[in-house]
Design goal:
This protein is of the alpha/beta class. The chain contains 24 helices and 15 strands. Helix 2 packs antiparallel against helix 15 and helix 16 runs antiparallel to helix 18.
C-alpha cells in the first residue's frame, strides 16, 4: 500500500509549485493511475514520492518511508523512462549485471526474461531494441528484485495498441498477486480501461480521486459524432424530437458541419436524418472527455480557483465553439454525486506535519483509524507484517499534531533527496559490467598490436635500451601504449557509468560509494597487470622471432624493472578511474593520465632539483643495521627498491596525482552527502 501525504514541490521563483498538497492512497491488489495532462505534475509527484527531488510531504510504502527501507529496490520497482543501458550490452548481460547490483542470483535474469517474453532476444544488443521491446526490458529491470510495489511513469507512451495491452496485462497480473501498482497516463480513456482507481491532477493539484466506475460515469460520456452539410437543420430537428418524446438529449455545435449529440444513439440520429432527407457524411459513436474537473466535489472542487478550460460536454478531440440547443434534463448527469475525496471529510485542509517518531517507527493507531489490507503471505516481508496491521491511514496521520519543528508551521515534513543506492555486490557487478561489452577486449587487442609494432620499429632503428624496447616506450612518447590503454580502460570504468547510468536510472547519475570505487580500482588494477604482462610477453616473442635471442635476454635487475613497469601501468589505470569519477567523463579521465608525465613530472623534477631541497637516503645501511628487528626474507631490500621507485620523478608524480585524485573524489562524495 502507498500513502502519499501533503506532497508539495519546491517553489520556482515567482511561479506556483509544480505539485501543491497532493495526498492519495494506492492499495495493494489494485492498479492506481495518476491522470493528468502534460505539465499537470504527474512526474514531479512520483519524484517526490521516491525522494528524488526536494519538497515537502511524506510517502509510506507499506507503513515506512522509502529512506527507512534498507533495500528500496526490493520494495519498490521503478520505471521512469527508457532503459539507460550501454547500447552494445546484451539484454541478458544487462539484467545479470543488475542482478549483482540488487544482490539477487544471476538466474533471476532468465526468470524475468521469460516473464516479459524476451527469452528469444536475450542475446540482442540494447541499441537494436524497438520501443516496445525496450519497455519490456524496463519492466524486467523493475521486476528483477521481485518488489511488492511498481511505480511507472507513463509506461505505454509511444507503444502500439498491442504492446500497451500486453503491458497493462502484466501490471494487472502483478496486482492480482497482491502487489501495488501505480502508474501515470495522460489519456482518460486508457485510465478508465486499465485502472481500479483514478487520481486526477490538474496544474499540480488533486481535483478528483475516484473509483474507475465513478470516473467513467463522471469524466467520460458517450456521444454521437455527426458531420453533415445541413448541421444546423439537423440539430434543430433532433432538439424538436427530444422535446416531443421528453428525452434528455443535448446537441453541441462544434464549428463547421460537426455536431455532438449526447443522450442519443447512432440509430436514432440516422433515422431522423433519413426521414428528413438530410445528407450525413459521418455518424459514429465516441467517448467524450469532460475535463479534469468533471465529478469533482468537496475538497477537490474547493481547491480549484477557476474551472479547467473546456470542462463542458463539448470538450473532446477538438475545442468546440458550442451552441447548445436544448438544455439537458436531470436524466443526463453532468457531474457525479459520489465523493471523490481520498480521505474522510473530517480531514483538515492543512497538514499539521508528521511527527518525528512516525518517521522512525510505525506509529500506533486506534482501532478503526486504518484500513487493513490482506496481502498474500508469499509477497509480504517478515519485518512488514506487524506494520501493516497497525498502519494508519493518510487522513489519520494528517490529523495528528506533532511536536516537531515542522508541526508548528502547519506544513508537511521536508523531503530530502535520497542518495543513490549502492550495489550490494560491487565486485561482481563491476566484473560483469567490464566483461559485458567488447570495448575492453578491443582496447586490449589494440594495445598489444601497437606495442608489438612499436617494439619492432624501435629495434630496427636501434639505440633503444632493452627495458624501453620490451615496453615499446619511445622517448618521444609521454607514456607507453600499455599505460595509455590501461588509463583508458580505467577511465571507461566510470565514464560509461555516467554516460549510461544503469545503477541509478531514475536519477541519471552514479552512486559515489567507497565499495563501488574499491571494486572499480581492483578490477582496473588486475586488468592493468594482465595487460602489462601480456604486452611484455608479446613484444619479447615478436622480437625473438625477428631478431633472435640476444635482443630479449633477461637483464640482471629485472625485479626492480618489473616492479616499476607494473606500478606504472597499474597507477595509470587507477588514475583513470579516479579522474573519471571526479570529472564524470572518460575524456577527462584519459586527459588526467596523460597530464601526469606532461605536467606533473616536470613540476616534481623541478621541485627536487632546487638547491634548497635535499633528498636524504631512503633506507640507509646504518639505519638498517641499527634496527632491533630484521625484515624476513630480505624485506628491507624490497622496501628500499619500492621507495627508490617512488622517489623517481615519474613514480613520485604518479603517486602525488593518485593521492590528489583520491582526495578530490572523497571531497566530492562528502559534498554530495552534505547537500
Amino acid at each position: 500500500m502507498i500513502q502519499a501525504i501533503g506532497l508539495t514541490s519546491g517553489t520556482r521563483k515567482e511561479l506556483p509549485p509544480a505539485v501543491d498538497d497532493v495526498s492519495f492512497e494506492a492499495h495493494a491488489g489494485r492498479v492506481t493511475v495518476l491522470l493528468g495532462a502534460p505539465g499537470a505534475g504527474k512526474t514531479t509527484t512520483l519524484g517526490l514520492m521516491l525522494e528524488l527531488q526536494r519538497g515537502r510531504g511524506i510517502t509510506y510504502f507499506r507503513g515506512r518511508p522509502l529512506h527507512r527501507i534498507p533495500h528500496p529496490a526490493r520494495e519498490v520497482g521503478v520505471l521512469l523512462g527508457d532503459v539507460p543501458g550501454h547500447p552494445a550490452r546484451t539484454v541478458r548481460g544487462h539484467l545479470r549485471m543488475l542482478c549483482a547490483a540488487a544482490g539477487v542470483p544471476g538466474r533471476r535474469a532468465d526468470e524475468v526474461l521469460e516473464a516479459v517474453g524476451l527469452v528469444s532476444l536475450g542475446d540482442e544488443r540494447l541499441g537494436t531494441l524497438s520501443r516496445g521491446m525496450d519497455r519490456r526490458l524496463g519492466l524486467a529491470c523493475a521486476l528483477l528484485p521481485d518488489p511488492h510495489t511498481l511505480v511507472l511513469d507513463d509506461p505505454a507512451r509511444g507503444l502500439s495498441v498491442r504492446e500497451a495491452r500486453w503491458l497493462y496485462g502484466m501490471l494487472r497480473a502483478h496486482a492480482d498477486q497482491g502487489g501495488t501498482v501505480l502508474c501515470t497516463t495522460a489519456d482518460p480513456k486508457e485510465a478508465a480501461r486499465v485502472a481500479d482507481r483514478v487520481v486526477t491532477l490538474e496544474r499540480g493539484r488533486l481535483v478528483a480521486d475516484q473509483e474507475a466506475a465513478d470516473f467513467s460515469r463522471t469524466r467520460l460520456r458517450p456521444r454521437v459524432a455527426v458531420r453533415s452539410p445541413h448541421a444546423a437543420r439537423l440539430a434543430a430537428l433532433l432538439a424538436q424530437e427530444a422535446r416531443a418524446a421528453q428525452r434528455s438529449v443535448e446537441v453541441v455545435r462544434e464549428g463547421g458541419n460537426r455536431l455532438c449529440v449526447y443522450g442519443s444513439t447512432c440509430a436514432d440520429v440516422g433515422e431522423t436524418a433519413f426521414r428528413n432527407g438530410i445528407v450525413v457524411h459521418q455518424l459514429a459513436d465516441e467517448v467524450a472527455d469532460m475535463g479534469p474537473g468533471a465529478g469533482a466535489t468537496g475538497r477537490a472542487a474547493d481547491d480549484k480557483a477557476t474551472p479547467a478550460d473546456g470542462t463542458g460536454p463539448g470538450t473532446g478531440e477538438s475545442a468546440p465553439s458550442t451552441t447548445r440547443l436544448p438544455s439537458p434534463t436531470a436524466g443526463t448527469p453532468r457531474h457525479a454525486t459520489a465523493d471523490p475525496r481520498p480521505f474522510p471529510a473530517t480531514a483538515p485542509r492543512q497538514h499539521p506535519g508528521v511527527p518525528a517518531d512516525a518517521q522512525q517507527q510505525h506509529p500506533d493507531v486506534p482501532a478503526g483509524a486504518g484500513t487493513p489490507m490482506s496481502v498474500p503471505p508469499d509477497r509480504k516481508a517478515p519485518e512488514d507484517s506487524a506494520a501493516e496491521d497497525d498502519r494508519p491511514t493518510a487522513g489519520a496521520r494528517s490529523r495528528r499534531a506533532g511536536g516537531t519543528a515542522d508541526a508548528g508551521d502547519g506544513l508537511p515534513p521536508l523531503i530530502a533527496v535520497r542518495p543513490a543506492p549502492r550495489p550490494l555486490r560491487p565486485l561482481r557487478y563491476e566484473i560483469r559490467r567490464a566483461t559485458g561489452i567488447r570495448t575492453g577486449f578491443l582496447i586490449g587487442a589494440g594495445v598489444l598490436v601497437v606495442s608489438a609494432l612499436t617494439a619492432v620499429l624501435l629495434a630496427r632503428v636501434g639505440h633503444t635500451p632493452q627495458p624501453r624496447l620490451l615496453a615499446a616506450w619511445p622517448r618521444e612518447l609521454p607514456l607507453p601504449p600499455a599505460a595509455l590503454g590501461a588509463g583508458l580502460l580505467g577511465a571507461l570504468a566510470f565514464g560509461d557509468e555516467f554516460r549510461h547510468p544503469a545503477l541509478a536510472a531514475d536519477r541519471g547519475t552514479v552512486p559515489r560509494r567507497l565499495g563501488l570505487l574499491t571494486a572499480k580500482l581492483l578490477v582496473a588494477s588486475v586488468t592493468a597487470l594482465v595487460l602489462a604482462v601480456l604486452t611484455v610477453g608479446c613484444d619479447a616473442e615478436v622480437l625473438y622471432l625477428l631478431y633472435g635471442r640476444e635482443v630479449v635476454e633477461v637483464p640482471a635487475d629485472w625485479i626492480p624493472l618489473s616492479a616499476g613497469w607494473l606500478g606504472l601501468v597499474t597507477g595509470c589505470a587507477c588514475a583513470g578511474v579516479l579522474a573519471a569519477g571526479v570529472f564524470r567523463s572518460t575524456t577527462a579521465g584519459l586527459a588526467a593520465v596523460v597530464a601526469v608525465p606532461l605536467l606533473v613530472v616536470p613540476l616534481v623534477r623541478k621541485a627536487t632539483e632546487t638547491p634548497s631541497v635535499r633528498t636524504p637516503a631512503l633506507v640507509s645501511r646504518p639505519s638498517r643495521d641499527g634496527l632491533p628487528l630484521r625484515w624476513p626474507f630480505g624485506g628491507e631490500h624490497h622496501l628500499d627498491a619500492v621507495l627508490r621507485l617512488v622517489a623517481q620523478p615519474v613514480g613520485g608524480a604518479l603517486t602525488l596525482s593518485l593521492a590528489a585524485l583520491l582526495c578530490a573524489y572523497l571531497l566530492t562524495n562528502l559534498r554530495s552527502r552534505v547537500r
